[in-house]
Amino acid sequence: MLAMTNNNAVLILALFCSLCFVHGQERKCEKIKIPMCQNIGYNLTSMPNMFNHDSQEEAALEVHQFWPLVEIKCSPDLKFFLCSMYAPMCQLNFQEEVPPCRSICERARKGCAPLMQQYGFSWPERMKCENFPILGGDQICMGRNDTSENSTTSPLPSTITSSGNYVEQPRVNCCSCRAPFVSVKDRKVTASLRDVSTGGVPGCVMACNKTYFSEDQESFASFWIGLWAVLCFISTLVTSLTFLIDMERFRYPERPIIFLSFCYCFVAIGYIIRFVAGYKVVACDSDGLMRYETSGPAACTIVFLLIYFFGMASSLWWVILSFTWFLSAGMKWSTEAITNYSQYFHVAAWLIPAVQTIAVLAMSTVDGDPVSGICYVGNHNLRSLIVFVVVPLLVYLVFGTSFLIAGFYSLIRIREVLRTQADKLIKTDKLEKLMIRIGVFSVLYTVPATIVVACYFYEFVNREHWERSIVCAECVSKYEVQPDHSVFIIKYFMALVVGITSGFWIWSGKTIESWKKFCHRIFGARRGKRDTAAKSLTAQATV
Fold first, then answer.
1. What is the DSSP letter of 389?
2. List the disulfide bonds (predicted).
3. How many whole angstroms separate alpha carbon 101 and alpha carbon 141?
4. Which one, of 12, 15, 309, lies nearest residue 144 by Cα?
5. Nearest to 401 by CA among 441, 446, 434, 437
6. Cα separation of the two ends of the chain
7. Fewer Cβ within 10 Å of end Cβ, the chain: N or C?
8. If pLDDT is split at 50, 70 and 90, which confidence band does 295 have?
């Protein structure tokens, strides 16, 4: 066994002359290029290592996961232990791989494992100390002189965060603005734009028409959103017109469905305006950057007003719809009694979203959505996203669902009471049909609304990691956090599909009859006038 000491390090090698004959492929030594593993007592390594990394670049990506622990010196042996595995020592006259000794592993684990557990990590399974040979045993290994038990550990930097299965390296001089983001430090831009921080990099903003996704994914997203916006507009327009030609047919508690559909009609118009005006006109400024924290210009503001105001109003009409169902089924209110309070429903449904919209515009928190190209709130500011989007939608969804469940429970109780009376079997059948319609429509709204909230929450939780995986690409591990394109596709689909399904309530033979009567009134009246005029002319000619 050969021992080598450098910087308090003793490299123990047992070289046996009988093993000098090389079996299989010869190991080729190369200079260590991994920054963390330079100046550790040897300067040559060979690949693949014990983790089957074929190159130093691949090994470096993984070993740098542990850089924060090395930096804070939780164990003086950690750096040597890691490098002995990821960049094992290579000697020209010895062809076997030399693993670290168990004592090195145990000292590193003793110093760092408690700190890792404190932040939700466990000691890696493939680095179990039992897997390594004992110093002085039958198998050769690399070791170091025992370090002091009284070595101190620096506090953990606040920049160490966990996401998935990796630890981010402290971002010191390794994060910079990279595509799709651009730096505005040297540009003549507003002070608010200079204050924008992306992934911890100040003055870094997203370029116009650039996203986290490929061009094919961007093209599909545009087609997808445009398709459902048009379908939503057609469906809601038909629903709204059906209400206008036969208002008496839609009474409370079902009437809020019409206003909900009316709101989605304007939401769809907002998306259609975006496609007619163009991505750059709506979502980008004149400098070729995405709009950040603005309240204009006109195209951006109009799209924002249509989508945000009427989107929030539709959520409130859902709450009112559930509430009126509860009053009717649970509290036994008549249609006339509910109608008497309709003005209050309108005040709540239009005033609350108006206050929200005014607050957003007053705080200039409107920005461009890089995926859809619309102007909305919270596309770049996480605080705005949670305050103006996630929380209101979640509150409306909870209230609406609560009233719906309470009303549905009351309908079930009424059904059971009526079933005990044989002479009212017909009424029970009608009630069951009503329950089925309410249940189907509830699913058609609640499920998409819940998914939309979940998608926004997914974006809120992960967006900062997406940004850091780009701007700090040189100092994070290979396990990068990338946004899931399908989540965004689902979000926009679910945000528009409710407008389509809101027509469920009018999909019946009564709607066809209403349109027939309307057409008869319009065209029948014209035909009657023509017949009268013809008879008058005939009479004059006869005279």
1. I
2. 29-90, 37-83, 74-112, 105-129
3. 5
4. 12
5. 446
6. 136
7. C
8. confident
**Cis omega (within 30 of 0) for bond into 253:** yes
Integer CA distances (angstroms), 43 to 31, 32, 38, 46, 86, in order: 6, 6, 7, 11, 13
Residues 6+ apart with CB under 8 A from 55: 47
Q: What is the pLDDT of residue 160?
A: 38
Closest C-alpha to 207, from 181, 177, 186: 181
In 3D space, the residue among 239, 228, 241, 240 whose CA is nearest the CA of residue 270 turns out to be 228
Over the stretch 413-449, which tens digit does the pLDDT of each residue have? 776 766 666 554 445 566 566 667 776 777 788 999 9
Q: Structure pTM?
A: 0.64
The more confidently predicted of residues 328 and 275 is: 275
Give whole-number Cα distances, 7 to 60, 135, 147, 437, in Å: 23, 19, 12, 79
pLDDT tens readout for residues 388-404? 999 999 999 999 999 88
Those residues with Cβ within 8 angstroms of residue 380's Cβ, 6 or more apart along the chain or in another chain: 196, 205, 206, 290, 292, 293, 367
- Please report the pLDDT score of residue 478 as a whole number: 42
Determine the Cα–Cα distance for residues 543 and 538; give it in Å rounded to an integer. Answer: 9
Fill in the amino acid letter for 358: I
Q: Residues 6 or more apart from 191 whose CB is under 8 A from it?
A: none
Give the whole-angstrom CA distance, residue 373 versus residue 377: 12
Give kind and range of the element (H or E) at residue 44.
Answer: strand 44-45
Q: Are 460 and 386 in contact (CB under 8 A)?
A: yes
Per-residue pLDDT of 150-169, as tens digits, reads 333 334 343 433 333 333 33
Q: Is the pLDDT of residue 84 over 80?
A: yes
What angle, rounded to 10 degrees, do the helices at 391-419 and 310-329 form?
Answer: 20
